Amino acid sequence: MTNRIILGKYGEIVLKGLNKRVFEEILVNNIKQRLVSLKGQYLSDYSIKRAQSTLYIDLDPDADFEQTAAETAKVFGLASVCVAYKAKKDMEHIKEIAADCFRDQLSMAGSFKIAAKRSDKEFAYNSPEICNIIGGHILDKFPHLQVDVHTPDITVHVEIRDFGAYIHGDAIPAAGGMPVGSSGRVLLMLSGGIDSPVAGYLMAKRGLTLEAVHFASPPYTGPKSLEKVKNLCKALMPYTGEIKLHIVGFTEMQEAINKHCRDDLSTVITRRMMIKAANAIAAESDCDAMVTGESLAQVASQTLRAIRCTDQAAEIPVLRPVVGMDKREIVDIARRIGTYEISTLPYEDCCTVFTPKHPRTKPELKYVLQEESKFDYDGILRRGDSV
Ligand code: ATP
Ligand code: MG
Fold first, then answer.
1. 348 burial type by CB count under 10 A (0-12 exposed, 13-18 middle, 19+ buried)
2. Burial class for 381, CB neighbours closer than 10 Å (0-12, 13-18, 19+)
3. Ligand 1 atom index nearest CA of 248
4. What is the Cα–Cα distance from 287 to 310, expressed in whole angstroms?
5. Mean of the pLDDT values across residues 188-205?
6. Cβ of residue 301 lying under 6 Å from some atom of ligand 1
7. DSSP state of 220
8. pTM for the complete prediction?
9. C-alpha count within 13 angstroms, C-beta hemisphere, residue 74
10. Torsions phi, psi of 130, nearest 5?
């Protein structure tokens, strides 16, 4: 069996100057963690080398290279991933591998092209020469084929690199972004809805490590809702790495708000109390910001005025990566990353249970604070609530 390898090409990291090594190290560590978690499923052994803004991932010969490549593509920091055939830096060997390894695809195709890249400038042939020689050989072997440089049915990529020659089809686009752990730590406010997991995914994409907090109100919310939130974390972890989940009881708080505060302001007060509870968790967990799944104007509690009132309760920045997105755009991402099916399971959320009929869309902080002064929320926050 011909020797194969996974090549992972860097995304934005290539633009980093002096810090590039630090980013690379975090990326390699994240990929190692990903590969370790796939052991026994798609592979049994791996090794990683890096050179020329590319990671060379060797697997045991029995590994499932395609599945491992697809899973590796979820690690933030990589722009693309491909399974390549290794060849010696020798034209005869490259010819043989290109024609042999792509035999099935080339037999089926009507047209093809060779795309050559020579990063080892010592190699005796330049890129156009490589294209001509390998292309000529393929035409000899598969005389039915046409060369089409614009819209070929199949492109055979030939890369001449430091460690050898690599031959592969089109690379699969990877998750992009920055390696998780390179930008800091944030606390994701994770409901069971569609939006907050997407918000977490998007911030992890910019290199942030996630912790998550979920507010539950038993018996209004049941164990299935907790299960759902745990499963959302699990679904995010191939992208984000390990997520520590804090589950906070919120029943006493919601009942107190319901009892003491004006109905039309209860939604914004609830949100503020969540933020206040999250302030303390963030401080303890060393998080420099919170993340929510709020999208402007999606519901009454997500108007600009409501967001202003909510923000006033926060001691650290609140990041809202989906604030400018339409629901459809958020749903598209949720489907792609595999959280949508979990989010749409029909288990109640603590907010839906207490949702007022007519929440105020333009709450004023003055009145919100007045309502909050009617009960001892600090006491409730301090005491905590068991789940
Ligand atoms: P989502 O789809 O994320 O539930 P949503 O459109 O239902 O969002 P809201 O219910 O108004 O919006 O909640 C706004 C944000 O507040 C959520 O995206 C989430 O970040 C946070 N949030 C709401 N409920 C909870 C909860 N029970 N635990 C933790 N965070 C929550
Ligand atoms: Mg919700």
1. middle
2. middle
3. 28
4. 18
5. 97
6. yes
7. T
8. 0.90
9. 20
10. -60, -45
